[in-house]
Amino acid sequence: MWRWIVLIMLVGCGYLSYNYLITKDGQGKIELVMQVAPDKQNGIAEAEVTHPTHWNLKHRMRVTLETKAKIRSYHVRVSTSDHLVVYEKEQIVLDEPSRLSFELPKPSIQLSDQTLLHYEIRMRDWSNAHFFSGNLSTANFDLTLDTTPPTLQIISQSSSITYGGSALVVFSVEEESLDAAWLSDGKQKFKTFPFVKAKHYAAILPWSLQQRAFSATIIARDKAYNTKIIPLNFTKITRMPYYRRDIELNKKYANKEAALQGLKTHPDFERTKMRLNLEEIVQADLDNTIADIARLNPFNPLAMSKPRVLLPFGAQKRYLFQGSLLGQALHAGVDFMTKHSKIQESNEGRVVLAEEIQSYGKGILVAYGLGLHAFYGGLSKILVKKSDLVESGRVLGISGFSYANKLDHVHFEMLVQGIPVYPHEWMDAGFIQRFNAVLQEARQRIQEKR
User: Fold this and answer.
1) Record's InterPro entries (predicted)?
2) Do 111 and 195 share a domain, yes or no?
3) How do residues 255-299 score in pLDDT, each as one tens digit?
4) Range of 122's domain?
């Protein structure tokens, strides 16, 4: 008899040891993703948001269960912060999948905004753990109900914008769970920057020469992907000096194929590649915004009243072979005639780039805040270095010649978030005065709110 008892004890101990070894709770994966459906009218693109914290009950919440031992069942329990259970369900899974997705159930009763919902999701697998009941994995998710979009208010803005030019806007967003706020020109998104105090933002909006249609809006989105859009009503000035030059290549090249090959190394087309690099540098620098712009002075890189223009902003060069268009290049800045001239800074800024730049010779890129940069190219000497803080009157470099510059000149560009804009605006005292007035008016109105 005692032998049977010993045998039973050994078998029992062996099974307990085996059960201990195979019991591995928490090994399964339980993930929650919010699937955002596209909505062009409200400026929402299709997206998947991992680790969501807010829910407007419109977008689908997808739960994904995954385990190597196959899924036996899952249990969903939903309760509020005051422990009211608003949903509970146990689901047996018959086909034993290793991966399963389902839509997170919505509360079965009406709840007010900002109600905190606690979701507990448990999954059991088909392993022999826990005396054949399977391993258990549990995940908890807290979601705040939020069906109200942010509130937007324009504090101050420019009254007009010119094709190829810029405008300024300052606005406020009232939203405790703000996810993002940006400007749009109808095609591209533009970053906004904190201004004066919390919940207030400022941005300069460019009207790109590459885009005739222009529809400016402010867009704010909270963490539940509720979106608010308001239009920016500018007087649009579409008249701008237009310069086009046709360059016939049949005298330089024997045939069309040779002309096409020659254009690949032409400075105008090398600059196209360089411009992409320059725009990437500007975009990367937007997160390194210096202090808010207090006020600006008119830009005057040559410190003279009427510098001589060699090639204007927006000039279009068309390269032809026997009348057939082979390529075209758009001039993104303005070229001023110089004679070994000093290039001076007109405002406080930070040097982002100071080095030899393909097809431009030596170049300098300076940041001023609010996504505004100036680029000075075609220099023979650089007198500043990267990360230098510069002030008005500082000599940045000396103009000169390079392999791409047949004439001594400086190439001057103004960029808003990487988009080249009309430099003469930023050199115009009237434009700068209006720009500063918008900043001053916004500061005053924000201070009066306190």
Assistant:
1) Cell_wall_metabolism_enzyme, Dup_hybrid_motif, M23ase_b-sheet_dom
2) no
3) 888 877 777 777 666 666 666 678 888 888 888 765 578 899 999
4) 26-145
Question: Would residue 428 count as lying in a domain?
Answer: no
Quote the pTM value: 0.84
Of 239, 238, 425, 435, the residue nearest 333 (C-alpha): 425
Q: In this structure, is residue 430 part of a structural domain?
A: no
Q: Please, which pLDDT band fits residue 141 given cuts at 50, 70 and 90? A: very high
How many degrees, rounded to 5, is the angle at CA 291 between CA 379 and CA 282? 45
Q: What is the pLDDT of residues 154-180, one digit of tens each?
A: 999 999 999 999 999 999 999 999 999
pLDDT confidence bin for 403, thresholds 50/70/90: low
pLDDT per position as a tens digit, 51-86: 999 999 999 999 999 988 788 889 999 999 888 898
Claim to verify: residue 258 and residue 192 sit in the same structural domain:
no
Is 180 found in the same domain as 60? no
Residue 302 lies in a domain: yes
* 326 and 405 co-located in one domain: yes
Strand partners of residue 343:
397
pLDDT at 36 over 50: yes
159 shares a domain with 135:
no
Q: Which of 96, 122, 145 is the last residue of a domain?
A: 145
- Same-domain check for residues 100 and 44: yes
Is the residue at 80 inside a domain? yes
pLDDT one-digit tens code per residue, 359-402 = 678 899 999 999 999 999 889 899 999 999 999 999 999 988 76
User: Domain count of the chain?
Assistant: 3
Kindly state whether residues 411 and 262 are assigned to the same domain: yes
